[in-house]
Structures are given as structure tokens and as C-alpha cells.
Amino acid sequence: MLQANKEEDVFSFEQYMASKAAAVNEALDLSLPLRYPEGLVDSMRYSLLAGGKRVRPVLALAACELMGGDEAAAVPVACAVEMVHTMSLIHDDLPCMDDDGTRRGRPTNHVAFGVSTALLAGDALLALAFEHVARGCAGVPAARALRAVAELGSAVGADGLAAGQVVDLASEGSPVGLPTLEYIHVHKTARLLEASAVCGAVVGGGTEEEIETIRRYARRIGLLFQVIDDVLDVTCSSEQLGKTAGKDLEADKATYPKLLGVDGARAYAAELVAGAEAELDRFDADRAAPLRHLARFIANRQY
Known about the structure:
Layout: H1 7-10, H2 13-31, H3 38-48, H4 55-66, H5 71-93, E1 102-103, E2 106-107, H6 109-113, H7 115-136, H8 142-156, H9 161-170, H10 178-203, H11 208-235, H12 238-241, H13 247-250, H14 256-279, H15 285-300
Antiparallel strand pairs: 1-2
Helix pairs in contact: 2-4, 2-5, 3-7, 4-5, 4-10, 4-15, 5-7, 5-10, 8-10, 9-10, 10-11, 11-14, 11-15, 14-15
Pfam families: polyprenyl_synt (PF00348)
Cofactor: Mg(2+)
Family: Belongs to the FPP/GGPP synthase family.
């Protein structure tokens, strides 16, 4: 566990996360009003509004603010990355993927609505994400909005999430070394967190150097997120996690604890936190505080 320091006295990360998550939840609710066909929209809202830590949207908002941008400029991309993330969870849980029955403490989307509706709900959320950026970034210079769209698209496709998922599925039951495991999680998990931060920095008006610095920061916390996820999968119960524990072990998937041991995985997590925080040293300390604490939050999470 990482220790708190004097920064905690002047910055409450818990309050920051709560306020940003509330703003994102309100914006997500407004982005997807109930309408015909009810079955599809209910399915989309069921997963999109199911709660969660909202790490990716908060990352986008914090990166925008770090660049001196207004939170309002980043709300559309914050919502979009959560829509993409939700799509990935719906599809990841399908019988043809990980075949999970529980997500965030309740039935997965395909259990609640059926496989075909869940599949289409994920597709519709992906389309809505790009529409939401294109329409919602009206006050942002067009070049910045276009770059955010391109960044998000890259994070989802054959250079991002889809690539990581394919290699992950193909690797089940086979010996996998650390380079392949890193490839899987850089693409399947870290890439979307990276895009969240980069999109926030882009619409916030960051320079090229600043944007690339934030990219490196986010790549590290993206890997950190997966390392901690792997550790929790073998150290927590299904009730604690809100999803099925031990699924990776059952599917004979490579994980960081499997390759490095639990202690080795935790040591790697500490390296990633330190590296991520070091990337923030060039920025104003007050503006960087949310991102610094976000790295520690991910490292210390218990579910």
C-alpha cells in the first residue's frame, strides 16, 4: 500500500472523484434518453449507468484541466470513453468471449437482455461514442475534436482493444511470456485509459510535448490497472469484486501473478506508480494533484 502524505491535507481525492463521477453520470444519463426501441435502449442504459469508478472519464477531465482547459470541453470525450469502455465490458462478458454471468454485482447484459440484444447494445454504444464527441465538442476547435475522434478510434480497433482481445483469447491454455502478456494488456486495457487522458489533453489545448507526456503517464497507469486487477482476481472473493473471481485461473490465462508471483506483481505495480508520477513532475503541482492521486488510487484499490 502506498502511504498518504501532506498533499492529502490540501487536496481531497475522494471528493474530487465523487464530484467528477456525479457530473459524468448526469451527462451519461442525458446522452441516452429512453426511446424506441425500448429493448435496445434499456440494454444500453443498463450497462452504461450501472455505476463503477468512472476512472476513464475522470482521467479525461483531469487531463483537460491540467492543460488549463475548462471541464465542459472534456465532458463529451469523458462520456465517449465510458461508452466505449461499457461496450467492451458487454462484449467481453458474452458467451463467445469470457462468458461471464456477473458484472458490478448484478447479471451481465446478455444474461439480462439476451445475447443478440447485448451484442447490438455494445455496437450502438460504440457508434454513440463517436457521435457524442462529434456533436458535443461544438465549442472546441475542429482540429482538436477531430484528433480526439482519431485517438479514440485507434484505441478501439486493430491497434488497440480489439487486438488485445484477439491475442488474449488466442493465448488461453498456451504458454505465454511477459512480452505477450504486456502486449495483451497494453492493447486491451491500457490503450483506452491512454486515449482517455490524451483526448482530455487534446481538447484542453495541450502542446505536443505535454500530450505525449500525459500519454506516457496514462500508459503506465493503464498497465497498473491490469496488474492490480490480476492481483485482486486471485486475492478477493466474487462478492468483493462484484464479478466472478478466479476466471482467469480457470481459463488458464496468463496473468501477472501467474508469471511474477503476487509479490512480484505488486512490486511491478509500485514501479508503474513511480514512473507515472515522475511524468507529472513537469506540471504545476496543484493541477497535477488529481492525476497523481489517481495513480495511487488505482494502485490501492481493493475491488
